[in-house]
Amino acid sequence: MSRLGVEPITGKPYKPTTQGKNERLHSTLFRWLDKQPLAATLDELQAQVDQFDRIYNTQRPHQALPGRVTPQAAYNITPIAEPPRPKTPTPRRTWPQRPEPPQIPAGLPAGTVVRKLNSWGLFQLDNVKYHVDPHRAFEKVLVVTDNDQITVVDLNGEALLETTRPAPGTTYVGSRGPRGRHPKTPGPSPMS
C-alpha cells in the first residue's frame, strides 16, 4: 500500500477527541440498539447492526451534511477522488561550488608566514592582533616581516596592510587607527 502512496494514520492512544466522529457513531448505534429487542444470538445482533447501517446511510437525514441529505446521497454526488500516487522524490538541492582558493606561492622570502583571518578579519603574530579587513574573514594571507616592517598581502599579491612592528606591550594594531571612541573635534558642531 505504501508503494501506491497510501499513508496510514492512527489516532493518539487515550485521546478520544481524535476519534470523535467514530465515537459519535458508536453512541448513535448504541442508542438505536437499546430501542431494539434484545438479540439472543450473534447472528441476530449482526442483523440489527446491518439494519442500522442501512437506515443510517440511506434513510436518516444527516444533520452535519448540507441540505440534511443522507450519507449515501452525499457519497453518490461527490466526485470520486483520484487514487493516491507514489510521491516522486524531490531532487537534492545542489549548492554552488566554492571557487578553488589560490595556491600559496612557492619560494616565499624568509620571514613569511601564512595566517588565516578570523571572522573579524584579524590574525595574531607574536601576541599582537592585527586587524586587516572584516570583508576578508576566513581568508588566508601572507605576512611578510622584514626587520621592523610588517606587510600583509593576500594570496593574489594585493597588499592589505603595511605597518611597523608595534612597541612592546601593544596587543592590537588596527588598519584604521586606534580602537574605541573617536576624540571630539574642537569647535562648533556641524549641526549648529
What can you tell me about this protein's structure?
The protein has 192 residues and is an alpha+beta fold. Among the domains are: 19-77, no CATH class; 112-173, SH3 type barrels (Roll). 21% of the residues lie in helices and 18% in strands. The chain has helices at 20-34, 42-59, 71-77, and strands at residues 112-116, 122-125, 128-131, 140-146, 149-154, 159-164, 172-173. Strands 1-4-5-6 form a four-stranded antiparallel sheet, with no helix packed on it. It has a three-stranded mixed sheet with strand order 2-3-7, with no helix packed on it. It starts with 19 loop residues before the first helix and ends in a 19-residue tail after the last strand. The model has no long low-confidence stretch (mean pLDDT 81).
Features:
alpha+beta; 192 residues; 3 helices; single chain; three-stranded mixed sheet; four-stranded antiparallel sheet; 7 strands; SH3 type barrels
**What's the shape?**
rod-shaped
CATH domain topology of the domain at 112-173: SH3 type barrels
Termini separation (Å)? 79 Å
- Percent of residues in helices: 10-25%
Segments where pLDDT lies below 50 for 5+ residues? none
The CATH architecture classification of the domain at 112-173 is: Roll
Proportion of beta-strand residues: 15-25%
CATH class of the domain at 112-173: Mainly Beta
Rounded radius of gyration (Å): 41 Å
SS class: alpha+beta
Order of helices and strands: HHHEEEEEEE
Number of strands: 7
* Count of runs of 4 or more consecutive helical residues: 3
Characterize the main sheet.
4 strands, antiparallel
Rounded mean pLDDT score: 81
Taking strands numbered 1, 2, ... along the chain, how are they ordered across the largest sheet? 1-4-5-6
